[in-house]
Amino acid sequence: MLATFIVVCRESLEATLVVVILLAYLRRIGQADKYRYIYLGVVAALAACLVFARISAYLEGLFEGAGEEIFQASIIALAVVVVTTMVIWMHRQAGSLRASLEGQAALAIERGQVLSLALLAALAVFREGCETVLFLWGLAMSSTASTGEMLGAGAAGAAAAVVMGYLLFLGAARLNLKMFFEVTAAALLLIAAGMLAQAANKLIGVGVLPAIVGQVWNSAWLLDERRPLGSIAAMLLGYRSRPSLMEVAVYILYFPPVLFLMWHTSNGKRASARMQTR
User: Is CB count within 10 Å lower at the N or C end of the chain?
Assistant: First the structure.
């Protein structure tokens, strides 16, 4: 389950980086005794994420038949919207994330509001945790992988992110974070487009959306998503061997607005940088 590994590793590393930046800042200013507030925020956020996951599972159990398909399609679409939004946000904020966090931490310490440190860590972990839960729900509803396989891949992704974060904290790693986030952002957007097409497939199945054309092509003879290689292509690229025209249209139309927004945020960053240098 490479897609699960990528999703969990990316989201976990984003949360881990926030924690690492806060811990490193506290160490640098001689406030290591306040580490416990960061840890408190992380534990609280993880507990809240577990509650969120449990509520999501409960809600799914309330629907049957066509209602269940519509609910699952809605969860997949929501996961795509949330993750796409966060990819675009990270694309814009990555360069200023450290300065922003350190500024907020400094203000909290100056005012004696040490619980604000816990809140900073908690919000970051909870945000990424909720994104991960939604995206994993979407992947689970759009794939044939077993729960055990997904849990194993997710645990491996989270462990890899924590190890990278710890090495960065120790100064033993020189990970090119810009390249890492660019590559994983591209992978996430491809996965999201495939999930959106799968949501369309579910809605077609219950008559909410028209197929337009039932089958645009049949490439199962070359690459069948029910086989290992085809399954990887389906999860990472959104490949379908027998797609309807609606699925193809949804997949293709997902990219233009997303790429435009990313281009727009890049231009905005460059314009802001030029203004500051004047």
Answer: C
Q: Express each pLDDT in 177-220 by its tens digit.
A: 677 778 888 888 998 999 899 899 999 999 999 999 999 999 99
61 class by beta-carbon count within 10 Å (0-12 exposed, 13-18 middle, 19+ buried): exposed
Half-sphere exposure of 179 (CA within 13 A, CB side): 3
- The structural domain count of the chain equals 1
CA distance readout (Å), 63 to 71, 74, 138, 202, 203: 7, 12, 16, 14, 15
pLDDT tens digits for range 48-70: 999 988 888 888 777 777 888 88
C-alpha dihedral sign at 12, 87, 72, 247: negative
- The pTM of the full predicted model, rounded to 2 decimals, is 0.81
State the number of CA atoms in the 13 A half-sphere of 121 facing the CB.
Answer: 25
Q: Determine the length of the chain.
A: 278
Q: Which domain holds residue 161?
A: 2-277
Residue 237 one-letter amino acid: L
Distance of CA 173 to the CA centre of its chain: 23
Cα torsion 162, 166, 172, 175: sign:
positive
Rounded to the nearest 10°, the torsion over CA 153, 95, 187, 70 is 80
Q: How far apart are CA 88 and CA 68, in angstroms?
A: 30
CA angle 184, 16, 196 (to 5 degrees): 35
The single-letter DSSP state of residue 241 is S
**Phi and psi at residue 269, to the nearest 5°:** -65, -45
